[in-house]
Specification:
The protein has a domain of about 130 residues. Helices cover about 10% and strands about 30% of the residues. Strands 1, 2, 3, 4 and 5 form a five-stranded mixed sheet that branches. The protein has a four-stranded antiparallel sheet with strand order 6-7-8-9. The protein is globular.
């Protein structure tokens, strides 16, 4: 039972239906393993095909998970390895797969994939509504990749662990189920992002019982206790978002929009 997680290993999960209603994308692992792959089910033919295998995307290398991604998966209660999450472009032609510390673009029709250079360390990735950009958070700032030119650029600057940009704070993730801190405008011209000042939150350290000789490490996310300081919320909040200020990127994204 423990090896198969109460016989739930191998069950399909995380379903996404393309907008044309022809294909269902989902994740599935093996009966005795936690490494998941991306699959596609064709509603017209009733056939299922392997769209992207984690081992193939990794090129035989070991899967690497950053401390930020580990913390994010903990908040989302994700225990699986391999392809843990994915997003689909609005037109259903491509899937975005974060794996091995970088982002991979997968063609839904052919299964061909390519690693997006310059996206190492990315978390919270997704397509812009028009499908021309891929956005992600890295080092507490929001970045984007122009899929036509493969150019990666910073959308925000100056984010830190105490005052991050485009990241949902601990309370939003753990108690409210909100795991993102930025939102695209429908026309893909602007991005609204959250900025939270956690400098007044008590800093706590966590020890690893399995490694008693390892010094306690600070928590990845500031977690306030009752009676102590909480994340600071400025008086002006252009958008009603809990846990911090919602700010709009000051410039339109290069090449965005029609």
């Amino acid at each position: 039972m423990a090896e198969t997680r109460t016989w739930t290993n191998g069950e399909p999960r995380a379903f996404e239906v393309t907008r044309d209603g022809r294909t269902v994308l989902f994740l599935r692992g093996t009966a005795k393993g936690r490494a998941q792959d991306l699959w596609a089910f064709d509603l017209g033919t009733g056939k299922t095909r392997l769209l992207a295998a984690a081992r193939t995307l990794l090129g035989g290398a070991e899967e690497r998970i950053s401390a930020e991604e580990k913390a994010r998966r903990e908040r989302q209660r994700i225990l699986d390895r391999g392809i843990a999450t994915f997003t689909v472009a609005r037109d259903g032609s491509q899937a975005l797969v974060p794996l091995g510390g970088a982002l991979h673009l997968v063609d839904v029709a052919t299964g061909r994939s390519r690693r997006l250079a310059g996206t190492e360390g990315a978390t919270d990735s997704r397509f812009s509504p028009d499908g021309r950009h891929v956005s992600f958070v890295r080092d507490h700032d929001l970045h984007a990749c122009d899929l036509r030119t493969a150019r990666v650029f910073a959308v925000t600057r100056g984010g830190t662990g105490a005052v991050p940009h485009a990241e949902a704070e601990f309370v939003a993730q753990e108690e409210m189920g909100r795991h993102t801190g930025y939102w695209w405008s429908p026309d893909s011209m602007r991005v609204v992002y959250q900025e939270t000042d956690s400098r007044g939150v008590e800093r706590r350290f966590i020890a690893e019982p399995s490694a008693p000789r390892q010094p306690p490490q600070p928590w990845s996310y500031p977690r306030p206790r009752v009676g102590t300081g909480h994340p600071r919320q400025p008086r002006r909040r252009p958008a009603a978002r809990p846990g911090g200020r919602a700010a709009c990127a000051r410039r339109a994204l290069p090449g965005a929009g029609p």
